[in-house]
């Protein structure tokens, strides 16, 4: 399912909240979701804002892994697990608190997951762009080395506190689906670009 979800635009003079309910079928070997709170340094006039709203997509991709296993890329066994930041610890705690309130079991953190989340957050911060680029490689790594049967990913940009990014994910139906999904493990990476903007990658795994 390809779902155009929520868009937030903020500038000095204008703020827009636009909701789209457009869906299309799409088939890929992954489940991945992203959300963006704003466009930094956005100072465009109203017509341009609406045009940008129509061209930026908040996406959910899903399909059966059994159908595309032959397309899985080769992966490198080497990985780096960075030191955990306070903002990351709090986000994981808030996500598990939400699962408890929903009557679900908590998820366990895993260094292998964090390593892949770090690779992607660091990449997004370096190129100053939010994306799910190379998700297939992260998924293949976790299936091969962490014993994952299913992998899902939420990403976000621009939020400055744990509560703000978690609330944004929870208030988006598609992102919330990953948070309350049938998973056993998760982890997160939060990295800043040269301007101090945060990029988040939150990966969920079913073992």
What are the secondary-structure elements, in order, as H or E? EEEHEHEHHEHHEE
- Show unreliable segments: 1-32, 38-70
Tell me the span between the first and last alpha carbons: 23 Å
If you average the pLDDT, what whole number results?
75
Profile the largest sheet.
6 strands, mixed
Strand fraction equals 25-35%
Instruction: Quickly count the helices.
Output: 6
**Could you give the order of strands across the largest sheet?**
4-3-6-8-7-5
Radius of gyration: 17 Å
| Class based on secondary structure composition and strand pairing | alpha/beta
Helix content: 25-40%
Per DSSP E runs of 2 or more residues, the count of β-strands stands at: 8
Shape: globular
